[in-house]
């Protein structure tokens, strides 16, 4: 029977790790007959087998990432798809929505029917993450308790849109809120914001021109137009967005920055970072959706290769040193840093961050918003951190010599420092610090690892098609010469389930551990080419090589790798 086969495959994996005796498999399967409970729960409750051990073994056996739900914030569970019947029927809990990919936590990796039914009912592609049975049950109970307060954003009418709550200061000037004439604007903007959340957009652009006004979403890194309201409404829409962001609606000559906290329900809210810019024909407004669930995904979900993950985790376990993450804007640097901080965030550690702006709020971490006008700069915040008994310090970005020197001093005096730089590769990061004026011996002795990264769009699993290239073409693109005959590539097609053949994104990384030889090159004044050459000798994949691995694994297309890395 199908059920017996699934149970046997689970028990076989457990027997290989000596969690159950090989001779007991048939007996356990026989005992399960007639039990009205999921098989993994039966093993944990009736057979007294450790649920966490089961989850870890099955994670390795079936290749699904493992996640612990002990401290999971259940308010992050997508509210529009909390289906109590499906959750209880399949013992499966939707956790995160990434673009159009829904990550579902389960304790049994053989229950493929659950993923298919959830995908059919929600319309999202599903990805499985494994967790232990006790943690899953506790999380499901908490989510179902909160369900009565949830708001389904997939079916909101005009009346609900006009009443959608924006958490504003009670002292705000009532005259700035507008009157009844602005009600249609309020409804329209609320609908735009909700559409952006549902579609998994990262940014919204409101752009006024002389004879037109357009609204665009950035989805999976690509901008696409979603609406063209009448140009006559551009100033009223800008005023409404500025009111929501607590900005000065009378000031249209200089840029302004603010935030919006949009309350979707009593227990769920979404943050937006808002930036205004005066242009020839009005104010362009760009909104960044700040997704706090990004930091909760866990390192296994980010796309690191096994060796890269190992290097990063070893660096996080060090008591001191500096971890630098580099890449252009929108390459996922913040998520990588927050993922590391979330791993480090324990009761025994004092963690402080200096950020501009604070994008994701993490409980248990002391986050400082930089305010240059008030004199709260990166250097002044770092100096204060060092007087507050820190274990770990995160600097949002190293922008100048003074910040770099203080951060390096902290890394050399018993603190773990995490930060970002805007460079194109790991090797260029080291030379950038030298060009800032940081002495070479300080760079060589403080920097532990460097992570350069990009984000590439994932191919849609429903419609991707095989792409045929000759071995000569593959060799020209840089694929390994010894694997040319084995390589199978895919290309985007496009369907109703995706955007242009892509759905979601995956990280591409260059992770470099600073070895004694690389330190010597830095001390001797070597340039980025010398450092990059040594990294290749030591077996570290650069961004291009890591991207080609993702293409060979079918995660993305060669065209997409060529877009985000140099060919």
Please write out the topology.
Layout: H1 2-16, H2 25-32, H3 39-45, H4 51-62, H5 84-90, E1 92-98, E2 101-106, H6 112-122, E3 125-130, H7 133-146, H8 158-162, E4 165-166, H9 183-198, E5 203-208, E6 213-219, E7 222-227, H10 234-244, E8 256-263, E9 269-279, E10 282-290, H11 306-316, E11 321-326, H12 333-344, E12 351-355, E13 366-369, H13 378-386, E14 392-395, H14 401-412, E15 416-421, H15 426-436, H16 440-446, E16 447-459, E17 465-467, H17 471-477, E18 489-491, E19 502-513, H18 516-523, H19 528-537, H20 543-552, H21 558-564
Parallel strand pairs: 2-3, 11-15, 11-16, 12-13, 12-14, 14-15
Antiparallel strand pairs: 1-2, 4-8, 5-6, 5-10, 6-7, 8-9, 9-10, 16-19, 17-18
Helix pairs in contact: 13-14, 14-16, 15-19, 16-18, 18-19
Q: Which range does the strand content fall in?
A: 15-25%
Mean pLDDT: 85
Q: Main β-sheet, in a few words?
A: 7 strands, antiparallel
Q: Helix coverage percent of residues?
A: 25-40%
Annotation field: number of helices:
21
Oligomer: single chain
Estimate the global geometry from the Cα principal axes.
Answer: globular
- Please state how the strands of the largest beta sheet are arranged side by side: 4-8-9-10-5-6-7
The beta-strand count equals 19
Parts with pLDDT < 50 across at least 5 consecutive residues:
148-160, 168-180
Quote the distance from N terminus to C terminus.
51 Å
Compute the CA-based radius of gyration: 26 Å
Q: Which structural category fits the helices and strands?
A: alpha/beta
